[in-house]
Write a structure and sequence with these properties.
This protein is of the alpha+beta class and 136 residues long. It has one domain: Nuclear Transport Factor 2, Chain: A. Helix content is 51%, strand content 35%. The protein contains six helices and four strands. It has a four-stranded antiparallel beta sheet with strand order 1-2-3-4.
Amino acid sequence: MRKSLIGVAALVLLGGCSAGADVATGEREIASFHEALNRGQLATIYDSADPTFRQSAKRDEFEQLLSAIQRKLGPFQSGKTQTWNDNVTTGGHYVTISYAASYSRGGAQENFVYRLVDGRARLAGYHVNSTALIVN
């Protein structure tokens, strides 16, 4: 029992050592997300998402959401990570990033969840909060 606890503790510590790299991987994916959004490559965003995301989010509804962001907020301008969480569970390895985004017609608070597999991040969740998205 003691050996297994030590093994689990070692895995937790090793996982924590890569948090900076995991967040950087997620931030690169956020940049790719916004580039694809600005280019209107909505299907590419959906198709490259994690299979669990595609099972829970319908393509047409997700593309409608992204289209509304484009139409109402305009092109993405800049953004900044506000908070992050790097989490390894029996269900997988996830990095969650809260992101303050500036678009040409308003700001948005975005929340990205990426599933990390073999050093690659795939979109597992996306949420957006924006007053401008509602009133524009």
